[in-house]
């Protein structure tokens, strides 16, 4: 058994295609196939079920691949540890950010971070929470920025801030006249929601204590964009809930209403695999983010954290 063979089975599990997996490992497809077959013969068990299309791990193979990922992660971690002293703040880091955070948070701190860490390159993707969790577990991402807690045993969370939820309500709506609201005052009808898969949707439904789809009179509309929901409210009817950063520059808009204290919030955190050991990178990333968000997000001590899982 070699580390190279472990890399090959991990690549095949990730891509579920021999040619694509071989390309990702910079070897020919016959070489990858031969080495995986040798490993299966050595272990006396099939790791992949080749009758499935696309190919899938066997039940035993799944356990072997999970162990292989852990071994490779620890080997890479050891290499990082050896290099920590001489080159702590350099390298390429893959970051996944949920779509309801990315457009409002990333422009605030990225320049500050890259200016202070010129030897670090960031590869940022906007993806939903469950995909971030999956990719961190499978070593496809280094760092996630998403709503927590996650309650995942092998993922470490580094809290950044608690962001209040705000009500965005149409001028014709009965709640428009109120200066502040409570979750109990939110009506059952008229709520515009994000698509399924967004953790913000689950948090809003949890806050409203209900399970439903967006529906207004004879219109059913679920969006992947907070801006679309706001425009629906502005030009139609009903209401929606938005995170404060999404409207931070438009707080004079009378459609925006705060909740009574303790305000409902979402906790936004960095998330990494417990084997991730670039502490200096995490600290610098956290420092850049906290420095470039409203002080109230960090300093607020009274809040009602809304879970999404």
TrEMBL record:
It comes from Roseivirga thermotolerans. The keyword DNA-binding applies. Keywords: Activator, DNA-binding, Transcription, Transcription regulation. The lineage of its organism: Bacteria, Pseudomonadati, Bacteroidota, Cytophagia, Cytophagales. It holds the Pfam family HTH_1. This is Transcriptional regulator. Residues 1-58 form the HTH lysR-type domain. Belongs to the LysR transcriptional regulatory family. Signal peptide: none annotated.
């Amino acid at each position: 058994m070699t580390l190279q063979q472990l890399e090959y089975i991990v690549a095949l599990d990730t891509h579920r295609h021999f040619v694509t997996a071989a390309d990702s490992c910079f070897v020919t497809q016959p070489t990858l196939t031969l080495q995986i077959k040798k490993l299966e013969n050595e272990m006396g068990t099939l790791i992949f079920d080749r009758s499935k299309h696309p190919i899938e791990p066997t039940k035993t193979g799944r356990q072997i691949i999970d162990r292989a990922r852990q071994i490779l992660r620890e080997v890479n971690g050891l290499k990082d540890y050896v290099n920590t002293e001489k080159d702590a703040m350099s390298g390429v880091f893959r970051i996944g950010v949920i779509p309801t955070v990315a457009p409002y948070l990333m422009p605030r701190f990225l320049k500050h971070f890259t200016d202070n860490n010129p030897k670090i390159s960031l590869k940022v993707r906007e993806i939903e929470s469950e995909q971030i969790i999956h990719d961190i577990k499978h070593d496809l991402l280094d760092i996630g920025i998403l709503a927590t807690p996650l309650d995942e045993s092998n993922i470490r969370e580094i809290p950044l801030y608690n962001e209040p939820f705000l009500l965005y309500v149409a001028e014709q709506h009965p709640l428009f006249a109120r200066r502040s609201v409570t979750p109990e005052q939110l009506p059952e009808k008229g709520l515009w929601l994000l698509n399924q898969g967004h953790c913000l949707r689950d948090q809003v439904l949890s806050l409203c204590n209900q399970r439903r789809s967006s529906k207004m009179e004879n219109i059913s509309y679920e969006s992947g964009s907070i801006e679309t929901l706001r425009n629906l409210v502005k030009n139609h009817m009903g209401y929606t809930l938005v995170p404060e950063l999404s409207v931070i520059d438009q707080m004079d808009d009378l459609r925006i209403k705060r909740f009574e204290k303790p305000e409902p919030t979402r906790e936004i955190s960095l998330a990494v695999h417990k084997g991730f050991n670039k502490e200096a990178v995490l600290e610098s990333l956290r420092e850049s983010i906290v420095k470039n968000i409203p002080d109230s997000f960090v300093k607020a001590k009274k809040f009602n954290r809304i879970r999404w899982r």
